[in-house]
Amino acid sequence: MSGEDFAAYDDPSDGEDLRENRSHVFERLPETSADRTVGGRPSREAVVDFWADRFGVPRETFDGYTFWEKGSGKLWAYAGDAPDGIDVEALGMVFLRVRQDHWKPTTDAVQRFAGRATENVVHLDDEQARRFVAGEDQELEWDGDWGYLVVSHDVAGAAEPIGVGLYLHGELRSQVPKGRRRDID
Amino acid sequence: MVLERYDPLVDDVDAFRAACERPLPSVVRVNTVKTTVDRAMAALDADGHGYDRLDWLPELLRLDSDSPGTSWPYFHGWLYGQEEVSALPALVCDPQPGERVLDPCAAPGSKTTQLAAMMDDTGTLVANDNNLGRLSALRSNAERCGVTNLVVTNQDARNLSLKPFTADESDEQPPFDRALVDVPCSCEGTVRKNPDALDDWSVGHLEQIAGVQRDILRRAVQTTREGGTVVYSTCTFAPEENEAVLDHVLREEPVELVEFDVPLETRPGVTEWNGEAYAPSVERAKRVWPHLNDTGGFFCAKLEVTA
User: How far is Cα of residue B198 from the mean position of the Cα atoms in its chain?
Assistant: First the structure.
């Protein structure tokens, strides 16, 4: 149930009275593992640690945001006010998939929050970046960690995150969602 | 033809008709949630896309090509394809950072994402639409634009409930500071973008849709705080959907029309149509005829809630 990243960034020891996730409403993440009331739900602290430790995203990037779960393991980052348990279609943006071995940031979250990422960022040239946003997998030299990486390229003279790649066995697999893929002119 | 019925309201019928025949240029708005206008222009320059910056709203760029969707700045969520004149009502609504703002007919999200950018992506922006398919387009557009202050709801805007925003142990229903009520309409003013826009036109349809518009505007007024701002807009010329809707809501709700300035050439709202007389203050609304600024047609009114 807990998964590798949950164990790495949170305290997965089950408390006494944990209840099940109510997947049809938005429930707010506990501040720390000690505040947990729902089984398998990571704490806000663990999620910020994940972005900071894995990608070097400064912790203050998430100041002013609350984190919520709706669906199973779909986490949302939200800047406004809402009561816990709110039953609406969307609250801020989907930014991380948990309740799986390796936590996976979304394309739009990486574009929004990973501009200052320093770790596990693979920087592509223009040709490679075009193949990536078209949804193609490509062979790539990479000395760093395997798993989900932030993918960036240069646009208007500076590096910008484009999305998420899965690096395995010498290959960068594009994780750009089908509806978001483009053949850039 | 349908547009002839507006000849008595137009100052230059030939120019009006000629403008309605011309296609509209492709315009994008720079999404300042994710970038600056300078960086977006630099990205277009680097890709060899030509454009002109529009002088009345610095975030608007008129493109030489008509395929902004396959450029790098679009993929990064830096650009949003939006008809020039439809950027007007958010400007009139003028939402401020930290406020609570309602967009009751939000999909597919050009005005919603513009409101979010004007709020610096802070405060609470409630975007509602009754159509789930269109809501899914709104959600993906908002996420591509990196908008995080957004709550998306799927309700009938005519009886929008604030109950979702009320905590379990409370009965407080927090009102909105502002609302941008860009209602579904007969879309006559989009004839330049969509030449089929008038194919299904009928007086019966106007009357039916005006009833919906009245109810949506009334509900938006009811959910906005005293002193708050409600902007009403359509992309149609029909007084039945514009001044007549305002006239009705002025009589039913504690609200008044206020004067406002816009950086486009406009004409005042009309106070008489087809033998009906409307409240004199509907003159404070603004009509944008296509030939005045070479845009689509538009109607916009600014209201203040008085109780």
Answer: 20
Which letter, b or e, does each residue of B118-141 get, where b requires 16 or more Cβ atoms within 10 Å of its Cβ?
Answer: bbebbbbbbbbbbeeebbbebbbb
> Phi and psi at residue B129, in whole multiples of 5°?
-155, 150
Domains delineated in chain B: 2-22+84-305 (3.40.50.150), 25-82 (3.30.70.1170)
pTM: 0.97
The reported pLDDT for the residue numbered B193 is 86
Q: Is B43 on the interface with A (CB under 8 A)?
A: yes
Closest CA to B164 of A72, A89, A138, A92: A89
Q: Quick one: which of B142, B153, B144 has its CA closest to B102?
A: B153
CB contact under 8 A, A87 and B164: yes
Give the residue on B whose Cα is nearest the Cα of A112.
B146
Interval A132-159: pLDDT, tens? 999 999 999 999 999 999 999 999 999 9
Does the distance separating the beta carbons of A184 and B71 come in below 8 Å?
A: yes
Nearest to A185 among B47, B135, B153 (CB): B47
Residue A185: per-residue pLDDT:
82
Max intra-chain CA distance, chain B: 62
Residue ranges, comma separated, of all CATH 2.30.130.60 domains in chain A are 120-178
Catalytic residues of B: 235
Is residue A54 within 8 A of residue A121, CB to CB? The reply is: no
CATH architecture of A120-178: Roll (2.30)
pLDDT in tens, A2-52: 689 999 999 877 666 889 999 899 999 999 999 999 999 999 999 999 999
Q: Is B172 on the interface with A (CB under 8 A)?
A: no
* Contacts with B, A 63-92, CB within 8 Å: 64-65, 77-92
Per-residue CA distances from B140 to A25, A84, A174, B146, B181 (Å): 19, 24, 19, 10, 21
Q: Do A84 and B148 touch (CB under 8 A)?
A: no
Q: Supply the ipTM of this predicted assembly.
A: 0.96
Cα distance from B298 to chain A (closest Cα, Å)? 30
Pair B255, B220: CB distance under 8 Å? no
